Amino acid sequence: MERIFEHPLISFKRGEIITFFFEGRELSAYTGETIAAALHANGIKDLRYSPIRNRPQGLFCAIGKCSSCLMEVDGKPNVRTCITPVKPGMIVRRQHGRGEISE
Amino acid sequence: MRLVSNLDLLVIGGGPAGLSSAIEAAKNGLTVLVVDEGVSSGGQLVKQTHKFFGNESFFASVRGFEISRRLTEQLNSLDSARIQNESSVVAIYPDGILVHDMRNDHTSLLKPKKIVLATGASERFIQFENNDLPGVYGAGAVQTLMNQFGILPGRSVLMIGSGNIGLIVSYQLLQAGVEVRAILEASNRIGGYQVHADKVRRVGIPILLQHTILRAIGEESVRGAVISKLDERWSPISGTERELVVDTICIAVGLLPSIELAAQAGCEMKYVQELGGYVPLRDEDMRTSIDDIFIAGDAAGIEEATTAMIEGQIAGLAVVSDLTKNSIQERLKYLKDTLRKFRSGPTSSKTRAGLSKLGSKFEEVSFTNGNQNDFTKYTGKMRPLIECFEAIPCNPCETSCPAGAISIGDNINSRPIIDYSKCTGCGICATTCPGLAIFMFRENKDGTCSVGIPYEFLPLPAEGQYVTALGRNGEAICKAKVEKVVKSANKTNLVYISVLREYASDVRHILVPSKESGAMVCRCEEVTVDQVRKAIKEGYTDFEELRRYLRIGMGPCGGRTCRLNTLMILSEETGVPVERLSPGVFRPPSIPVSFKALGEGRVDGYEE
């Protein structure tokens, strides 16, 4: 997907450009964006694989209520990426299943 | 874990209800903490780009994100209040409230004297095959991506649900440059306000009544959707299935009050379908069955942001009344009256039915049904045509009119009545109307009409430019010349176009031709629409000049294909009708011919 730069009503105030890692790939984001938003801006919609049927799932509510966007962030599973801001150098992975704590 | 105990009020949720209650409490000197899960406060207001209905003292005609900014600013200016973002309340225990600060991953146990629960709502989810596929979003998520972070959710969207949210978000998608293929509605009538439905119809989004989605298509993310017609009993009619190619499915089928914390705390609950689900019992002060716990906003029953703000203020003041001797009774009474009036119209019948089940009583209130019968008496005068046919709680047209020509009256649900003798034709009502339901109108002596259209899209057309005038269902009606563009600080600009009088009552929107086009005008010399437009702007405003400059029309076809197309672009850009433009010179050869053939030709007629 892409970012909106011209809008009839909103002037978007974006932070600095930073980079973070998703599945080993270096991606860019703006500070102030959530992890899920930054991934969408990079065209990534499938954020995890469900615990029982192993189905791809993504953002659904975007306000921290539905738990559809749980990912592994800096080794910590079950992070609600829709309300967690992206940080420079953050390591983000798709979560498979219920998540495991990695060291 | 830290222990915090000197807190008068803990507000859970920093949306319109929460912020409003915190402001009222802090204004009265109470120590207030607002905890909110979001990266910024304002709740769902931060992604609302439309102007709000309602009355002036509750930000009517102000866009949602602006309301959020003002409320946050107001709260931050109060010494005894603080907002803590990125923090969730994990539990309400008898000995304290457990708050998780996600920024540094630690918890605190708070012991406030009072609590206002303003936890909002969550998205309702409907069942169809593959409804968990990435690319199936709740309407709120689409707004978050698009309006808060400026990220397109997709390219082509199918909207499920025609309530106010479905209608508003569809319009917002179009404003962001995303195509909306259709809005599906299971019932046989549109759920939201008529003014919102009118807005999406005139931009050309079809609303398909008695339709539903059967399944989403795709493996890793949405690639399409299968939709179907429904019969009277809402069962899909076999054989009416259709496949739509979309990359996003947006679900806007309603909201559920977020009552987990209230229920956990032991507040007495009741299932009230009209309010969206389980809600806590409460009195007029928004006090739940637990003395120290109040509730406000969508968590108390699904409604909208204005009532959330009023309820928030009521809850905040009720807390003040409990903890101080401040005299706030008069203000409390005013707020309750305002809320009652706000809910007295036909669009609030569901809310009234729901609240009645919780013990609220509503008296019959009268509101006027405005009329504009003398519109035709003022033919030839620039004046507004108010297409607000439904009694909704809203009055910015009245409060913004500098001439005092529009009146709503005491009940905010009444429809506007306009006195055309007082109207100066300034157009301010048309730019403030949250429903974009006011159009400017003047019959001209030359048989045309000037129509002023509230326009919230990019690009804004230029004066003198030709645009396509669209009707109420987004259908093209005629070409129209832009007479005037009046820019407004609130970004609802007015575009005045001139159309033939017979079309004027149908024209309600415009389509501005896309300025960028790599499409070919001249196939032989491969000249694009963009090149022609650029040349015209540089000053080549005659077909012969364009031909010499761009070689347009100088190829083997002899200008057959491109001459008229070029003239039409020239007409669009210069405003001169095609019939008044010079078509240029027609030169031989009219088709390619070889020099050999010419050399061997004879002058005396046919060869045997």
Textual characterization of the structure:
The complex is a heterodimer of chains A (103) and B (608). The longest helix of chain A is centred in the middle third of the chain and has 7 residues, at 35-41. In chain A, strands 1, 2, 3, 4, 5, 6 and 7 form a seven-stranded mixed sheet that branches. Chain A is 7% helix and 30% strand. The model of chain A has no long low-confidence stretch (mean pLDDT 94). Chain A has 103 residues and is mainly beta. The relative contact order of chain A is 0.22. With 608 residues, chain B is an alpha/beta fold. In chain B, the strands form nine sheets. In chain B, strands 22-25-26-29-28-27-30 form a seven-stranded antiparallel sheet. In chain B, strands 4-3-2-8-21 form a five-stranded parallel sheet, with helices on one face. In chain B, helix 1 (16-27) packs parallel to helix 7 (305-323) and helix 13 crosses helix 15. Chain B is elongated, with a radius of gyration of 30 Å. The N and C termini of chain B lie far apart (110 Å). The A-B interface holds A 1-10, 12, 14, 32-34, 37, 40-41, 45-47, 50, 55-66, 68, 82-85 and B 37-39, 44, 49, 63, 65, 86, 88, 102, 122-123, 125, 132-138, 140-141, 144-154, 175-177, 219-221, 258, 456-458, 491.
